[in-house]
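Lecture 7, part 2: worked example. A protein chain together with farnesyl diphosphate.
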Amino acid sequence: MTTLQDKVDLRIPAGLDRKEAEVYRHLDPARLPKHIAIIMDGNGRWARRRHMPRVAGHRAGVAAVRSSVETAARIRIPALTLYAFSEENWKKRPAGEVSFLMRLLSRYLKAEVPTLNENNIRLEYIGRQHELPGDVQERMNWAREATARNTGMVLTLALNYSARSELVDAFRSMVKAASQNGGIDHLQIDEDVVSQHLYTRHLPDPDLVVRTSGEMRLSNFLLWQLAYAEIYVTSTLWPDFRGVHLLEGIAEYQKRERRYGGLNHSEGHPSPP
Ligand code: FPP
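Predicted complex, written out as structure tokens:
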């Protein structure tokens, strides 16, 4: 016979650990975010506190990526986007750190594809991929192709990404499309058209953006798409971040009232969806 306790436990997705289950138990599964974006920050500070080189923080950050991806997939978040390397990262960091990050990404992709497939996760990228080293591009294309048939969570890695560059590329793409379809006089622009020309055309806008290490900035990340997102900042440094912290961010998100510029319910005007 099924006891009440069994029924309660059935709500907890398989694979969550004890701490994760404890946070998840208080969530409303019907109001999970459809898309979570994460600004992974604090690798350097994590390493410095341990008197280690900065790259040790990046290496440790891979475990945080793995844990967040697995937990998000287990609770069936439809889309997760991770800000891995900004365009500015390339220009402002020492060449040795940049090439370490490239190797780390390549190794991550090679090692993770079987797990992504087991978890039905499809890999995508946003950013100016064509500017990355050729061997890294090849590995990225291979990993995307190897997961292309998965139908579960979409994991998007922002690599060589800048929101302003994305908007510039979108404007160029709109003008090009117009010139191929009757000329610039036929250029029609509204919000839907702009969204369809962004790198994120395969995704809904994020409902929640998480930033680690306590910084209160968007750092040129998804500036168009985050217009109505809830922002959750945690002081946890990225290498210490785990699935349970993601669930804590979701719990905070569920406490907020999203108004999309409208009034709140107590004022008698329900917000638009
Ligand atoms: C920010 O920390 C983090 C990065 C620039 C790189 C993020 C990379 C990883 C988490 C590891 C690999 C990623 C994948 C997808 C395999 P920071 O160096 O700016 O930290 P600081 O602000 O403390 O210096």
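The pocket of farnesyl diphosphate is lined by residues 40-45, 58, 61-62, 65, 82, 84-85, 89, 104-105, 108, 157, 238 (CB under 6 Å). The beta strands are 35-39, 79-86, 122-126, 154-161, 208-211, 230-233. Keep this in mind for problem set question 3.
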